[in-house]
């Protein structure tokens, strides 16, 4: 299994390739807010562990293994964003919070959160009920 840091790189590389068709070291460095030399080091590690290959003209190419895990990581990120959105987390906090938790949950927890998200998406009136509880709690907090 990739480490949390490897996961961040594979996730970003997968996103860049899906969105732009390629992933350059400079783009990865910018997206992850790290130094390009750190990217080069990690890319070599990911190459050694056969998540990707560096090809002279095409640049970084994910292997089948890299693509599979990359898609899973991007889907996990999206799911957790939907989850935080549904439970009413402020939009400004969502991205950073997902980045903070995504590597630290078991796939078991991710799958069960997936069920919960599906439940709320299939019964949107439950989201309205949850909102009422939130409003009540926020009013109580505000009046304390
Ligand atoms: Mn992420």
From TrEMBL:
Localization: Cytoplasm
Domain of life: Bacteria
Principal cellular location given in the protein's record: cytoplasm
Sorted UniProt keywords: Activator, Cytoplasm, DNA-binding, Manganese, Metal-binding, Repressor, Transcription, Transcription regulation
Annotated TM spans: none
SUPFAM superfamilies: Iron-dependent repressor protein, dimerization domain (SSF47979), Winged helix' DNA-binding domain (SSF46785)
Gene Ontology biological process: intracellular manganese ion homeostasis
Record's function text: Central regulator of manganese homeostasis.
Family that this chain belongs to: Belongs to the DtxR/MntR family.
UniProt protein name: HTH-type transcriptional regulator MntR
Organism: Siminovitchia fortis
Underlying gene: mntR
């Amino acid at each position: 299994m990739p480490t949390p840091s490897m996961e961040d790189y594979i996730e970003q590389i997968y996103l860049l390739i899906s969105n732009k068709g390629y992933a350059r070291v400079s783009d990865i460095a910018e997206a992850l807010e790290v130094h390009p030399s750190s990217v080069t080091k990690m890319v070599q590690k990911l190459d050694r562990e056969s998540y990707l290959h560096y090809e002279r003209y095409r640049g970084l190419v994910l292997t089948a293994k890299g693509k599979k895990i990359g898609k899973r990581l991007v889907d996990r990120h999206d799911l957790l964003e939907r989850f935080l959105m549904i439970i009413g987390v402020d939009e400004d906090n969502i991205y950073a919070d997902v980045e903070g938790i995504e590597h630290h949950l078991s796939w078991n927890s991710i799958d069960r959160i997936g069920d919960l998200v599906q439940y709320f998406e299939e019964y949107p009136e439950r989201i309205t009920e949850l909102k009422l509880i939130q409003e009540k709690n926020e009013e109580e907090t505000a009046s304390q």
